[in-house]
Write a structure and sequence with these properties.
- This protein has 428 residues and is an alpha/beta fold.
- Among the domains are: 105-195, Orthogonal Bundle (Adenylosuccinate Synthetase, subunit A, domain 2), CATH 1.10.300; 266-319 and 331-381 and 392-405, Adenylosuccinate Synthetase, Chain A, domain 3 (Alpha-Beta Complex), CATH 3.90.170.
- The chain has 13 helices and 20 strands.
- It has helices spanning 17-25, 77-89, 108-121, 133-141, 148-151, 156-173, 181-195, 202-211, 245-250, 284-292, 311-321, 360-365, 391-404; strands at 4-9, 30-33, 42-46, 49-53, 66-69, 74-75, 97-100, 104-105, 199-200, 216-219, 259-265, 268-270, 305-307, 309-310, 325-329, 339-348, 351-353, 367-374, 408-412, 420-422.
- The strands form five sheets. It has a ten-stranded mixed sheet, sandwiched between helices.
- The radius of gyration is 21 Å and the shape is globular.
- The mean pLDDT is 95.
- The chain binds inosinic acid.
């Protein structure tokens, strides 16, 4: 059993990480987000109340837990303050929230540019969440970004003035309106005052907690196949959503990480554009799964594309993340599906192909080869153990485990926290 656990979405995001991280955060002393921004959306349900988080780590509901927003994140101050206010209304005051002074800030022009970039791509658009994620990471890499330390300092005005000289040129060249520095500054100052008490050196804080033996949960956002390096480029997000992102996005050494849990859905979904070999083109099965699994984006409300479990992609994901365990979510959604398919190989140029090719054009050509299993009709939402599952559901889980080659440590049969069946404990 481990002191540090990473939870990573193993497919294209929306695998149900929120539920698992929330469950694990009850056992953790520290919960850390290490990449992404408010493009993420975690739905957490407990005590019959549904909470939606986009930026703040899911340990926020427990006042004894330290919640860290790491340096690898890009943070929109407006979204952050909205989320803090929403939590306050529900009695959670965010006194346990610590924001990295090195995290980059998403400002209004990032969002405007996200929209402009998508429009310019036309048919080839990524289908981003339009939250400004790509443009903010672009500025980070171009070394013209504004970080939290600057945002809450007295130098914010001059930093903004300098940046706007560049950004206004860019905006005007695309036909957008230039931004007035004084107006923008006054709007953001109010937000900076609210955020400032939370901004600190989270790297030292986190490493000190680890040295003290505290249990740390690293909470990934998006999914491994949306990773900027390993995902289905260019239809990816702009950060490293895989487990490797933890070290650079939170400031801990690679050897710090002990358990790496890959969260898989019992089927597959994807939002936005990009190849999806196992996609079930609009038919009664995809509609059934979409409605039953409420497969609509938490952040954008877009209907998600639905597909069969892709064991080739799943295995690739396990490899690049170094998963030590696998969680299978939303198993109950498949109840009532007569025959369930699993993709075990692709065919590319009439040859078997066992991984995700680098070129998206090749991935688009990959034809899935399926095995088919009998489904089950019994209600499984109340089962409390693997043994209580119908035989066909057991066989389905066992097949996934064999194909991916990683032990299943938990599976989920419903949205509530107590509908999670734990096979092996992760935290010591
Ligand atoms: P961006 O992260 O907004 O730049 O969007 C890039 C791609 O990642 C698009 O296909 C989005 O739909 C997808 N994406 C971003 N965040 C999430 C998420 O939390 N879940 C699922 N897909 C996401």
């Amino acid at each position: 059993m481990a002191q540090t656990v990473v939870v990573v979405g193993a497919q294209w995001g929306d695998e149900g990480k929120g539920k698992v991280t929330n469950y694990l955060s009850e056992q953790a002393d520290v919960v850390v987000r290490y990449q992404g921004g408010d493009n993420a959306g975690h739905t957490i349900k407990f005590n019959n109340v549904t909470h939606k988080l986009h930026l703040i780590p899911s340990g926020i509901f427990n006042t004894n837990v330290i919640n860290v927003m790491g340096n690898g994140m890009v943070i929109n101050p407006r979204s952050l303050v909205n989320e803090m206010r929403e939590l306050q209304k529900r009695g959670y005051y965010c006194e346990n929230l610590y924001i990295s002074d090195r995290a980059h800030v998403i400002l209004d022009y990032h969002q405007t540019l996200d929209g402009i970039n998508e429009e310019r791509l036309g048919e080839g658009q990524i289908g981003t969440t339009k939250k400004g994620i790509g443009p903010a990471y672009t500025d980070k890499a171009a070394r013209i970004g504004i970080r939290m330390a600057d945002f809450v300092s007295d130098d914010f005005y001059s930093a903004l003035k300098n940046t706007l000289k560049l950004k206004n040129k860019e905006l005007v060249s695309f036909g957008a309106k230039p931004i007035d520095v004084v107006k923008m500054y006054s709007e953001y100052m109010e937000l900076a005052d609210i955020i400032k008490p939370h901004v600190c050196d989270t790297i030292t804080l986190l490493n000190d907690e680890i040295k003290k033996g505290k249990k740390v949960l690293f909470e990934g956002a998006q999914g491994a196949l949306l990773d900027i390096d390993f995902g289905t480029y260019p239809y990816v997000t702009s950060s490293n959503s895989t487990s490797g992102g933890v070290t650079v996005g939170a400031g801990v050494g690679p050897k710090t990480i002990e358990e790496i849990l890959g969260i898989y859905k019992a089927y597959a979904t994807r939002v936005g554009s990009g190849a999806f070999p196992t996609e079930i083109k609009d038919n009664y099965i995809s509609n059934y799964i979409r409605e039953k699994g409420n497969e609509y984006g938490t952040t954008t409300k877009r209907p998600r594309r639905i597909g069969w479990f892709d064991a080739v992609a799943a295995k690739y994901s396990a490899m690049i993340n170094g998963f030590t365990g696998m969680a299978v979510m939303l198993l109950d959604v498949l109840t009532g599906v007569d025959r369930i398919k699993i993709c075990t190989s692709y065919y590319l140029d009439n040859q078997p192909y066992q991984t995700i090719p680098a070129r998206i054009e090749d991935f688009e050509q990959c034809q899935p080869k399926y095995i088919e299993l009998d489904g089950w009709t019994e209600d499984i939402t109340n089962v409390k153990s693997f043994e209580e599952l119908p035989e066909n559901a057991k066989a389905y889980l066992q097949t996934l485990e064999e194909l991916v080659g990683i032990p299943i440590v938990l599976f989920s049969v419903g949205p509530d926290r107590n509908q999670t069946i734990i096979q092996r404990k992760l935290f010591k």
